[in-house]
Amino acid sequence: MRANYLRNLGSLALRREPARPLLFSFYITHRCAWSCPYCSGGRNPFRESRVRELSAADAGRLFGILRREAGSLDISGGEPLVRPDLEDILERARALGFHVTLNTKGAGLAGRPDILRLCDVLILGVDALDPDKLAGLVGGRDQAEAVREALEFALAGRKTTGPLVVLGAVAMPDNLEEVEKVLALAESERCGFQLSPQIVNMSVHPGLRDNERYRRLVDKVYAAKRRGVRVMGVPGYFRAIRDFRPFRCHPLLMPIIRPDGRLYYPCLEFGWADADILEAGSYPAALEAGRRARGRIPDCRDRCHLFCHMGLSLLQRHPIAALDELRIWQGRNARAGA
């Protein structure tokens, strides 16, 4: 990550688009039984998607190609835990030396303890702690109980297996008090915390604009970061999501890959996936195919105030603040990456 970060600084100095990936994000499945209202900008495009999924062996081939370009890999979905071969996939990534992050709601995690061992960072989606409010967000009481069980298991299991556990919360107009509780839990348990505002069709939920309760929440999250809580995000990120300032997105800092191995270009939100990385034989070749098909990266300005895009873009543009931030992101089991 550090080497690519420095190369990207050089590109920015020359007023070029930073195109060296800090990490790759592989959506290993589009399948998901959750009913989260904010999924993929509120559109939940995965629900009816029938995209082919790479086998564990083909995922390993894909990882070999990606590892030439970066040392960090984010595994996401859909819900990654619906794949019975997830452990095999994680093993293949670790064998190549990837620093692995897993994004999940965690249902069934307690029955698959090897997953904790195979992750450097485990991001659990936790948008509320109150059982009734959580049930309303994830689709029912059984689902809410599954989230709570996963949370308890992960917090206990990290003591022996060592991943950095991050509680990821999405701020919505009707869960702001609950997000504060999640932040307080992260502080008391000395784990990480990640905040994103709810996005609808690539734009901020209108109920968060000019919402003083939301602004106070962002202020509290940033105050927690300043007192040493492991809150993810450079200072500029919190200023930007508080007032929804425009920003220059650099989506190629985290290229996103579809379950069938095709590269989303310029990003997931546009839904274009013209190049198969396995067929192309390299990430640069797939990227060039995407550029030929779709042209230059657009300047979206005040859209996609999401941690994955905005947080990384501002991280790249603020190198002094990034020094401490990169240490947090690496997690307790960090290994050297590209």
Q: Any overview of this molecule?
A:
The chain is of the alpha/beta class and 338 residues long. It has one domain: Alpha-Beta Barrel (TIM Barrel). It has helices at 2-13, 56-66, 86-95, 114-117, 131-138, 141-161, 176-189, 212-226, 235-243, 277-280, 283-294, 307-317, 319-330; strands at 24-27, 72-76, 99-104, 121-125, 164-171, 192-197, 199-200, 203-204, 230-231, 256-257, 262-264, 275-276. Strands 9-6-5-4-3-2-1-10-11-12 form a ten-stranded mixed beta sheet, sandwiched between helices. A two-stranded antiparallel sheet has the order 7-8. β3 (99-104), α4 and β4 form a beta-alpha-beta unit.
Compact description:
The protein is α/β, with parallel strands linked by helices and about 350 residues long.
Strands ordered across the widest β-sheet: 9-6-5-4-3-2-1-10-11-12
| CATH architectural name | Alpha-Beta Barrel
Which class of secondary structure composition applies to the elements? alpha/beta
Helix count?
13
Using only C-alpha atoms, the radius of gyration works out to 19 Å
Corresponding CATH superfamily: Aldolase class I
Strand count, sense and closure of the main sheet?
A: 10 strands, mixed
Low confidence ranges? 332-338
- Name the helix and strand elements from N-terminus to C-terminus, one letter apiece: HEHEHEHEHHEHEEEHEHEEEHHHH
- CATH class type: Alpha Beta
Overall outline? globular
Strand % is 5-15%
Mean pLDDT over all positions: 90
- CATH fold node name: TIM Barrel
Distance between the termini: 5 Å
